[in-house]
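Record type: monomer structure entry
Structure origin: computed from sequence
Chain ID: A
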Amino acid sequence: MRKKATPSEGDSLVFGIHPVTQALESAKPVSMCITSSAPAELVKEAHRRNIPVENLTTSEMDVLTGNGTHQGIVLFIEGYKYARWDDFIEEMHKPSKEGRTVVFLDRITDPRNLGAVLRSAYLFGVRATVLPFNQSAKVTAGTIKSSVGAALLTDVIRVTNLATACREMREAGFKIVGLKMDGKPIFESDLSGDVVIITGSEDRGIRPGLESLCDEMISIPMMSSSVGSFNASVSAGIALYEVTRQKSPKTN
């Protein structure tokens, strides 16, 4: 009989095929819970690595994941580890031949929205995503799920004060750019060097104190505003695309 899966306090929960696959590769698995519909190859990998596996009913799995889209599989991993600001800012003070990108998120409180941003951040090579301790989502199971596991592959840092962190980034030579509906068009801004992109919540935007620290406020042009603006994760994704486009080697 296999050992019952018994996660410890502080362990993180990952569910869904793609997030679990990524977590098996990049995190430290503790235990697995499955239903009869779990992908056989992932269960086989857990057995191969002597990860305790427990069979649950679908209703038990629904309760465990808060009715999340678990696809019959849950993996408990050692608690999510945030990167340390002190280590990061020390690294950012070192010169780099390539323009570096950092994302700051102000008052983004939906864990799934955070996950979508982290997915884009990973795909576009962002060095780190920085969040405040207060009025901000944390990295949760829902975050990891919505990021398709990318949250486990990109650095996330929590700081006491985003404004202080902004000042330190400027001291490291970074340009500070905020997203705002009435800012200048993003395509007119030079984002090819070291840059911090600040995204605020869809309804409240960036706090005035942070906005005052920005070198520029930029906007993403829209053909219509009849349904409001882009949400934070879409805005961040579009902005990061433009940053990447500008940093990419030019070809004739």
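Annotation 1: Strands lie at 12-15, 29-34, 53-55, 73-77, 101-106, 128-132, 156-159, 175-185, 195-200, 216-219.
Annotation 2: The mean pLDDT is 90.
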